[in-house]
Design a protein that fits this description.
Blueprint lengths: L18 H11 L10 H5 L13 E2 L2 H6 L6 H9 L8 E3 L4 H14 L2 E5 L18 E5 L6 E5 L4 E4 L5 H9 L3 E2 L12 H7 L6 H4 L2 H4 E8 L2 E5 L11 H5 L8 E8 L1 E2 L3 E9 L2 H13 L6 E5 L1 H10 L3 H13 L7 E9 L1 H17 L5 H13 L6 H8 L2 E11 L3 H14 L8 E7 L6 E11 L4 H21 L18 H20 L14
Parallel strand pairs: 2-4, 3-4
Antiparallel strand pairs: 1-2, 5-6, 6-10, 7-11, 8-9, 8-10, 12-14, 13-14, 13-16, 15-17, 16-17
Amino acid sequence: MRYWNSWGTDTTEKPTITEGARQFVRENLGEGRILPQATLEEVCAKVPASRLPDHELICKDVEHRVRHARGQSLPDWVAMKSGVFDRFPDGVAYPETPDQIRELMDLAREKDFVIIPYGGGTSVAGHINPPALDKPVLTLSLEHMNRLVSLDTESQVATFGPGTPGPMVEAQLARSGYTLGHFPQSFELSTIGGWVASRSSGQQSLRYGRIEQLFAGGRLETFEGTLDIPTMPASSAGPDIREMVLGSEGRMGVLSEVKVRVSPTPEKEKFFVVYFPNWRDGFNCTKTAVQSRIPLSMLRLSNATETFTQLKLAGHEDLIAMLEKYLRFRNVDEGKCMLTFGITGTRAQYRAAHRQIRRLVRHYNGVGMTIGDRIGRIWEKGRFRFPYLRENLWQEGYAVDTLETSVDWSRVDNTLNAMEDALRGALADQGENVHVFTHLSHFYAQGSSIYTTYLFRCGETYEETVANWRKLKSAASQAVVAHGGTISHQHGVGRDHAPYLSAEKGELGMAAISTLCQRFDPEGRLNPGALLEA
């Protein structure tokens, strides 16, 4: 069963916090402040009467409305924990066919209500929150459109319902010997339609590409009709319609069918963890690896603070103690940085890539290749479990959030340092520490993404906690914009990032995006306030 007020399901094996980890957090942030939590029953009692008309496809049950009222941003988290939601959708629909989506859109126009497309509810940027409008709001959950519709093995193109979550995408393809290879941190719950709508990036994008490389076409239901996007290997016939839909965040229409480029299941795949004596060696190794086109499936370079924090929070205390002893013996100690990488492909590809990366790691003074696959297996087993730590830390009285960007290689260090400095100092006037750490999560010949996590103590109240988060988010976002970074490399824009989008797109670019959305949704009934400020 999926949790109503936190991340995930009750069937997933979850990480735990050791006493050593608790002590580490207390030493850095002070004693946690544990806030009282509302129950589902208490929240359901606050849901007002629906303003939507009766319709066989619309569910007005209060629990359904509560469970679809928020995503997973920190303000969403606080709303769910405190029970102060402010707004709920007036109903939830669960269409099973494109025709039913169109029927609901026609009803929205006739009865004057707005629609919020909903995939897996994993948004961390405020994509799916009901806006403050006088009009009723219908959340359109696509979870029943969750199957593999067809698979063209000759062209290696698969067609899915938009509400298919990551595990079901992979399971259905695996039966025929294929994979999509798109593994975002939210893989357990996020959906293929949501990946397209928010321009998602998976952990193994070095091999498989981001969602824009994987998205081949499909169908978009709009208020001006159905937009069919044919699958073609490539085209020079004007602007790419696929690119118009990618990242549109439900403002142009509702995806009713998603076609993606798939690959045969790899013959061999392994993940490794190695360590460098300092950030500069690790940085140069990863940049060289990607610019030399070594065929890895993923790279992830943690800075010294993240490396230290990960080792403290990891559990596996006996293994970590043995690892630390080994690293000290190899003169890799204070300031060490951890690199996680994957090798995926045929056996011949695997051997070639392994030989190249081993040589490169050695050249840049990295150690651990001989034991790296053992730690890599631990990483692989828990690769989608990190979001559950947010609940563990919340129960101890601490809040956790993340933010990310991407910049050219020449600006990585300055941008990373500016983001971390902004976060560490944002609550200094209140005497509150913020624990900040970063890794480079996705790599390109031109540059890299920067993914920063920050922990801070909950406030005395929920209101104070959100106010502190806003100070932190604003300070870091301003640092990103000031250094020429994108406001989002993989989380999308939603409502939280919309105020910063114009810094990247410019006045004319923003006008073009607005015009495009208006062309497909002239009355502004689709997800108003997301992507473009209302």
